[in-house]
Amino acid sequence: MGKILDGKQLAQKLNSELKANIDISFEKTGIRPKLGVILVGEDPSSIVYIKIKQKICEDVGIESELTKLNNNTTRESLIKEIEKFNDDSTIHGILLQLPLPKHLEDRTSEFIELISPLKDVDGLHPINKGHLFDYYEDFVPCTPKGIIKLLEYNEIKIKGKDVVIINRSNLVGKPLIFMFLKRNATVTVCHTSTENVESHMKRADLLVVAVGHPNFVTKEKIKEGVVIIDVGTNRVDGKLCGDVDFDGVFDKCSRISPSPGGVGPLTVAYLMQNTFLAYKKQLKIE
Known about the structure:
alpha/beta, single chain, Rossmann fold, 44% helix
């Protein structure tokens, strides 16, 4: 296998297999999975992400319904839209696009908690986070699912390895802790208050980085043979790049995921997988 961990190619494989499974389920039930998406405001990145997600939904045979709310939407109006999707039996998954506008952002946890756990395709509801605490990985955030799949598909050993995660968010770092522990890795989590981060990076067998800083990881900060998963997304001189100095570390690491083209496509692929899972659970399909 090559040194580059190609998430785009793997995502295409997963989407192709999913489409076949969805077609089989549709033949049996006459019902297609359906994703309900709620967008609040006009954040340019969110609009782009939603268009990508809707395109992949169409490709794999998942229906989607988008509710767009203006930037001044009230708490009560957003709650009403979430409850509408909860009560709609034709909607199997609910995606609340984040981040929310500033006046609602502090209530993000409240809105997520209102989403039915069985329709929580982002894996952020407290019940689903609690399941992950017991290593139950049904509705898990899509990026961590993609990272684990990328490693396992490429037959990268996790058991016993020293894993360093530089991120402690609900979408990446926290879920990965339990997913790596389930696979018997030794896990260190670094964050903005970690002293001497470089000492932790230097001993990592497997390094996952999502800090939002271009060239945060350079060859001087890693050991020979490390596996690097770059989750960063930055724009420099009009071009997208990750958190890793890709060219600089390439000869020193054993495997590396690029950004873009590594974890990103898998995040969307697992949103589709989670939507299909929600559909199967609600229709009681084995």
